[in-house]
């Protein structure tokens, strides 16, 4: 069952030119990234009675949809959820909200992501390309992977993330983006490899999906 964190965030920065509403699905995550801001509340913690159901989220959207222009769905990893439930939820969102719907993802579910784009249930994807996967071998560079995403992926897992990056760029939505956090553990060379890779894919597909290198902000203590 889809469950959501009860605190919605109105943001002016995540999607340039839009007032967006950011909703976190309380679904866990298949990574444990360095400095994750959602680790304690949304990944390590399980839904504890404060959560909202899909029906409750839809009711909130129905009451306040005039206050935002775009809807952002995050996690954890939103695409970890059952595809039937994701489809059902997004169809109902589409019925009451006319603005763009964007999914945040780490790229590990390329088939689900592609289906949602093909079916028009989402309008774009903000994909976190956390490392230059195309340059890093899952075995030889396992230590780098563990330091940043908390796991050493298989080669199949890495290929899935690369497929997602290319799929987002090939789709070429005006509300999509590829992005990376400027992790302090990494040198500038890592980020330059990602930027060049995204640029190469944009040229190959005749696309203009932007790449954003975002600042790293250390997570604040829970009692701060």
Quaternary: single chain
Q: Strand order across the biggest sheet? A: 2-3-5-6-7-8-9
What is the fold-level CATH name, i.e. the topology? Answer: TIM Barrel
Terminal Cα span = 32 Å
CATH superfamily: Aldolase class I
Radius of gyration: 17 Å
Number of strands: 9
Strand content: 15-25%
Shape: globular
Secondary-structure-based class equals: alpha/beta
How many helical stretches? Answer: 7
Helical fraction equals 25-40%
Notable features of this structure?
224 residues; two-stranded antiparallel sheet; TIM Barrel; 7 helices; alpha/beta
Describe the structure.
The chain is α/β, with parallel strands linked by helices. The protein has one domain: TIM Barrel (Alpha-Beta Barrel), CATH 3.20.20. 37% of the residues lie in helices and 16% in strands. It is built from seven helices and nine strands, in the order E-E-E-H-E-H-E-H-E-H-E-H-H-E-H-E. The protein has helices at 39-44, 54-64, 83-96, 110-118, 142-149, 155-171, 188-205, and strands at residues 3-4, 9-11, 20-24, 52-53, 70-74, 101-105, 124-128, 177-181, 211-214. The strands form two sheets. A seven-stranded mixed β-sheet has the order 2-3-5-6-7-8-9, covered by helices on one side. A two-stranded antiparallel sheet has the order 1-4. Helix 2 (54-64) runs parallel beside helix 3 (83-96), helix 4 packs parallel to helix 6 (155-171) and helix 6 crosses helix 7. The longest helix is centred in the C-terminal third of the chain and has 18 residues, at 188-205. It is globular, with a radius of gyration of 17 Å. It starts with a strand and ends in a 10-residue tail after the last strand.
């Amino acid at each position: 069952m889809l469950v959501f964190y009860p605190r919605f965030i109105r943001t002016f920065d995540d999607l340039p030119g839009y007032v967006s509403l950011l909703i976190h699905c309380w679904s866990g995550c298949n990574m444990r990234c360095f400095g994750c801001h959602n680790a304690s509340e949304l990944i390590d913690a399980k839904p504890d009675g404060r959560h909202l159901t899909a029906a409750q989220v839809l009711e909130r959207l129905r009451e306040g949809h005039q206050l935002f222009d775009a809807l952002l769905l995050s996690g954890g990893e939103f695409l970890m959820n059952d595809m039937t439930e994701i489809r059902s939820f997004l169809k109902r969102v589409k019925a009451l909200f006319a603005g763009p719907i964007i999914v945040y993802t780490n790229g590990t579910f390329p088939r689900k992501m592609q289906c949602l784009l093909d079916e028009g249930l989402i309008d774009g994807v903000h994909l976190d390309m956390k490392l230059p996967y195309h340059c890093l071998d899952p075995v030889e560079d396992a230590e780098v992977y563990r330091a940043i995403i908390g796991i050493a992926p298989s080669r199949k897992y890495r290929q899935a993330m690369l497929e997602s990056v290319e799929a987002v760029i090939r789709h070429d939505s005006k509300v999509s983006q590829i992005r990376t956090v400027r992790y302090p553990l990494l040198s500038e060379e890592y980020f330059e490899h990602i930027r060049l890779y995204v640029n190469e894919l944009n040229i190959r597909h005749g696309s203009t999906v932007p790449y954003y290198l975002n600042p790293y902000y250390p997570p604040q203590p829970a009692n701060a």
